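User: What would this chain look like folded?
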Amino acid sequence: MDEMLNSVDILFDINNRYVLIVKRLNDPFKNYYALPGGKQEHFETLNSAVIRMIKAKIGLAVTQEIKQGKTIFTFPQLQTQSTLHQVRTYDSGSDPRGGNTTVFAIQIHADRKKILRNLKVSGISNPQIIDRASLPQLAFEHNQFIEDYYRNQHLYTDSESTYDSGVYEKPSVTVDIILFTIINDSLRVLLIKRKSWPFQDSWAIPGGFVGMDETLEHAAKRELSEETGLAEVYLEQLYSFGDPGRDPRTRVITVTYFALVSSNDLKPFAASDAAEIEWFDIKKLPELAFDHKNILEYAVERIRNKIEYSNIAFQLLPKKFTFTQLQQVYEIILGKRLDKRNFRKKVKEVGLLESIKEMKMDGAHRPAQLYTFKGSEETILKAAKFDRT
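Assistant: Here's the prediction, encoded as structure tokens.
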């Protein structure tokens, strides 16, 4: 009687989600799908058997080296490496040939189509890479082997030698720049008319895609310059918007920036990426591209909140201004009238302003005191709430 031989089964754990299975051409379990593997020869170690099976059964080139006690497999066709993990040894179970089966896991970061293109199977057929949550009934106890591995081992790790960025989907990143100003006593936002698909001829917030070698802030300033001709604008990051369906081209996440600017200081024009450019009253907006209506609503609410705890209003005022000018800016942004005495009291209480030795003539009225802002842009107004609705 022949001596019983042990077997090896190879669980290719692909991207921590998919498993390579093949169809058996011989009994037992002929025409069933199973993990690739086979019987260990008398003259070889288990590791050697794994290498032979990979080369002979599925046709992948593989080399082995030992690093710090770990077995590293290199797959030149896939341009990746993997650490070989011995999962556990099972008894013969439903295999009528007897012997024990040792399961090995090989964790591969690679594109599934690339793996399948490089397989040249022998003695088996129809290799498939299947989501482990959707596996069919496999031969022997292979479903149990896979379940045990993912439940108990979960050895999947990235390293410098095994990491492959190509296996992960890559959403695009854009920046959108929201510029607010005050013109004719109304809060306005700068919009551009798009030149091309998608949303050709629709109005939109200026913006564009982030380059691989630039920071978000640099991309925002570049796009602002390319679409409006504006430069040297202080931009503050607002929020990130990433609903999966917000852009018909692909999965796009946008990081938005905003600024309050004086319309007297800046003269935007439609540059290379915009057909037209215009300041729109936020209460009379046209139909907007993408999800820019939602983005603008968020931005308006943000500056209404921010004006109550910082001195961002200084960006809309001359360096020297009167209390009346300051109150007008607050009223326009908050969208409501403010009690003059209450406003003046609250602003003075928090020490936001500094009076200067200058006055401004205002028609037939007596001269008005001029002020400047104290401190930096982020001066805190603490309790200065203006009871807006």
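The longest helix spans residues 292-306. If you want, I can go into more detail on any region.
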